[in-house]
Amino acid sequence: MNAIAARLNDWFYISLLIISLVIAAALSIPLIYLFVKTIGTGDEALEIIFRWRTFNIIVRTLVLAFSVTIVSALISVPLAWFLFRTNIPLRRLWLTLTVIPLVIPSYVGGFIMVAAFGPTGLFQSMLSSFGVERLPEIYGFWGSLIVLSVLRFPYMLLPVSASLSKLDVSLEEVSHSLGYSTFKTFFKVILPQLKPAIATGGVFTSLMVLSDFGAVSLLRYETFTWAIYVQYQSAFNFDVAAVLSTLVLLLASIFIIFESRIRKNELSSGTSKLRRSFSSYIDIGAWKTPVILFLTALVLLSLVIPSAVLFYWLYLGITTGQAFSNVLSMAFNSLTISLVAAVVIVITAFPIAYFSCRYQGKMSRFLENIVYVGYALPGVVVALSIVFLGIRFLRPLYQTYILLIAAYVILFLPICIGTMRNLILQINTNLEDAARSLGKNRFQVIARITLPLIKPGILAGFILAFLLTMRELPSTLILSPYGFRTLATGIWSATSETFLAAGAMYSLVLMLVASVPMVFILLKRINN
Q1: For 212, which DSSP code?
Q2: Whole-model pTM?
Q3: Residue 96 has pLDDT above 70, yes or no
């Protein structure tokens, strides 16, 4: 009670709490309004929920999410073991090349699939001279499964690799001393210890599939995100769109709760402080060649072939005299809106990150949970919730940059909070206390001690927010002011109208701008 009373008399605590609550409330208003609108539809909401078509969309979405997760696990678990525990040559190079596909937006992956294997695609044109009139259908489930698995398996690879690097090698040595082979040791000793990391990576992968819009739309596989967009954009049925969005919100919440329980169990199980790291890599002998072939095939499929397809269509466009004059304006729009959004996200993230670190308790956890909901939501759901709110209450702001940036803040604020939070926790509070004892007030301490020390976290959060904003498609499509086009929306439009050369140009520019800093961050984390 004394601690609570002391905090209530602390003007700095009260000020920070009010600022954090205002931010959290502002971010949650659109989502709350989405619930209210769904409830407002009355019996029609129940009719929509219990339609056979809604059930079909749920099943299709979950089947795709689980399929991509299983394929990602089948790729990532053995890949992590080969890269971290065996004597495969050029481990760092292979690790870098297999993680880089993470920077390719899924809608660029869908576009590449259409441009390469579609009815008028690259391979169809090449094979037509050999009498092959039509390649197997690439649209639908199988096309979506291939694209999302190839581009999103690093979401599974990264946590599994991190967990593998921390395992206690003495357990493996005991297994070998009991006569178990390397193969049996992997399945009986290593794999059980990797289960939490696999589960965490699986939840992340499933959430990415649940929120994906670009790939499933371009490959015509109806999941929640595409169905919601069609109801809003084509059918103008806002009630159905609201109900479907609320269902996605509930589905994503279940995934988040599951992931938080995994993390909680992982933390409670703890890691032995006496663990011993491995001192030598396992010699896999004759298996080295097949493993290198597997890595080569994976890099070809996820990186080399997609890049080659884009350059091929760009070459065709240039040789046939196509003009790409609007690419500069699109790139400028993407850079400008992403920079502004990243600045707003960084400014908004700091109060909540600082409050959650310096005043840990139920209130800080409550605020974090509210903010983190946006992290798992599909962009199309966040965008529609803002549309509903804008049309009803904020009409002058509808289709302005303010609401567009608000959507970016809801979606990407948690990532920025995470990068700052880790560094704030590492600051010794004695430093801040010493500065206050020298006569500095709280704001001066933050300006002269805290902010300089967490500068790397602020920079990382800014870069991540900038890159994710630049790649964001559904929110930009739905909320952009009239006539405002970015590289992401340009790719969508070009692909929808089968302007493959233009789509290739926009994709390459977007990947060029987005890849360099993203790869820098990934490599830094891998090296750490």
Answers
A1: -
A2: 0.82
A3: yes
